[in-house]
Amino acid sequence: MAKHFISGTILLLCISIFYLGFQLHGVAKVDNKAEAVEHEEDPSKPSILNMEKGLWTLEEAAAYLSLTSKELDKIIVSQRLIRMKRSSYPTYDYIPYVQINGKFYFSKTKLDKWIKQSTYEEIGG
Question: Coil, helix or strand for 78?
Fold first, then answer.
């Protein structure tokens, strides 16, 4: 009887651990903090886990800038037309990106510098 009780307990423990692992699959760290949030996989939205890689796709950069990918694409195209008319311009007047095989890629550090350069602060009061 004791053998069956121990075997049953071990089996129940294994099932519980498996179920817990399945439930915790949707938990992710945000901004390298120990705070965990529920994270449901949505293929149409960039994953928070992918936001730490070197180059971001158009969709990931748009999410970071709180824009839709269509809005960001429209801004890039309009800035490209303006930039083509100029012979020189300051680096961070336009959203920094690199184009590889027709696709746009963005660096978080360059985007942060562009945001800092493009942010207007009210001086005085």
Answer: helix
Distance separating alpha carbons of residues 36 and 125, to the nearest angstrom: 39
pTM of the predicted structure, to 2 decimals: 0.54
> 58 pairs with which residues across the strands?
none
Q: Which tokens sit at 26? A: 């949707």
- Measure the CA–CA gap between 125 and 114, rounded to whole angstroms: 25
Q: What 3-state class would DSSP assign to 57?
A: strand
87 CA to centre of own chain: 34
**In this structure, what DSSP letter does residue 95 have?**
-
Compute the distance between CA of residue 71 and CA of residue 67 in angstroms, rounded to an integer. Answer: 6
Distance between CA 39 and CA 80 in Å, rounded? Answer: 36
pLDDT tens for 42-51 read: 555 555 445 6
